Amino acid sequence: MNSPAAMPESEPERPRGEAGVSRWGDAVLAAALMSVDPVGTGGVALRSLAGPVRDQWLTIMRDLQPPGTPMRRIPLHVSDGRLLGGLDLAATLSAGRPVAERGLLVEANGGIVELAMAERIGAGTAARLTMAFDSGEVVLERDGLAMRSPARFAVVALDEGVGDDEGLLNALLDRLAFHQDLTHIRVHEAVACDYDADEILAARALLAGIQVSEAQIEALCSTALALGIPSLRASIFAARAACASAALEGRTEVTDEDLAVAGRLVLAPRATMLPPMEQPPDEPPPPEPEEPDQEQDKGEDQQEPKELEDQVLEATKAAIPADLLAQLQLGKLRRSRARATGKAGAVQNAPLRGRPAGVLRGEPRAGLRLNVVETLRAAAPWQRLRREEVARFGGESNRIEIRQDDFRITRFKHRSETTTIFVVDASGSSALHRLAEAKGAVELLLADCYVRRDRVALVAFRGQFAEVLLPPTRSLVRAKRSLASLPGGGGTPLASGIDLGMMLADSVKRRGGTPILIIMTDGRANVARDGTGGRARANEDALSAARLVRSVEITSLVIDTSPRPQQQGRDLAVEMGARYLPLPHADATSLSHAVRAAG
User: Fold this and answer.
1) N or C: the chain end with fewer CB closer than 10 Å?
2) What pTM, to 2 d.p., does this model score?
3) pLDDT tens track for 230-277
4) Residue 423 pairs with which residues in a beta bridge?
């Protein structure tokens, strides 16, 4: 017998047997189950950067497909014509009549669609993809064409997002049964697969005759409910995955093992809460009176679904990663495709610069760019009629007839510049501490401005009025000089500070930028708009100024800087329609993080 020292430190993990519960084993099993029932399971959301581990998984997935299975890769900025199909421009101009071109989704009918850089896919492309996904066909009615083509496929969405800020759109993620993360899998763990295409074909032959019982469906639905999964598709996908698992193992009925696989692969990655813990009773319940044998048999039958539900739930809980359990215990729900903080501003239409975002009918005037291909595409269906029209007047022409209605202009979109405007309360004895924190936050934000193209401005209010200390700028030297000599003390003209900050934000917005208004105050105003004293009138003016900010729809954040946050700060945030953040002991770093989160 070999001694423990003679044993290897680690054996390669196999996707079957005990190693089947490993992350790589589950990822390979998900690829196999999707191959058995591609349309029923929808596909796989694969989170991983490009590398040998992802390449190995994609190779395994492709090798599992039976011969002749169509596979298409959809690039990030795919056009609608290439995705859905449309007019074949060259063939149409050559034949003089509309000739249809098949899109990628139609070409992938009965196969697999690989979606590259899926975390960056646009909402329009995702909507067209999910519409075809749900209906099983592509409906094309444009460019003189009207046709319906079958498009039933599975999607492999390659998610290359980094961190929790990037991810797939919920509409797409919800339609994929399997969510797999290969981020932390090492290269030596990505071993070969024991399944092959012949086994997939045999499993597909068995799949049609496999059914899930009502008790098993109830167990899957109860597990999804206990884990806080809101979508009904998850339970449907779990049932389909259980049937595929049974077919893959050569069984004609779904077993508890298949339900555990479905819970582990489909339900566990979607969990948003932990199931409630059952507390043991203080005293044992009194024994129930004995019933006839028929009643006892009936009670045992009623307990079976509960026992099955507990088994599926325990298997699913065991598959939830430990870090996710910690996040769920803290009440942090994972968000998909959240906007990355600290990036450029809102998306805006632009006539001359930015990324192409479709075409519009129009003439190439005032520097607008003519889209030659789309112009030819609009003119192509009418060439035969136009040539006949020319022939009726005795003319003859082999040229392409382009008319004014055919002109198409390229439309662009770009992200506007973000300007963060600090409105700082410089009054009172704590002004020196607050201003020191504001200075640190401004300097931290300016350090990233070169990357994010952001600008920072500073408004301070003290005494009787407010003033702009730092106009919108990216200059760190200028910011330091403006902040260095700022004094503190005096009254709190909160309304004047909000008004001046709003005016500055409005000017940024009018120039096409995206302003973010940050109000740093304790909310206790004692100077009115006209510079006179009186807390009652000063508070009324401050709330009135806050309502004006909400009316012009400026993104804002109220940071309550008082040692003990009071109701005044919350009321100000409510009237402003702003996010309220009490930070009685904030430092420059926490303020910087709060501002980035607000953006």
Assistant:
1) N
2) 0.59
3) 889 999 999 999 999 999 999 999 999 999 999 999 998 888 877 765
4) 459, 519
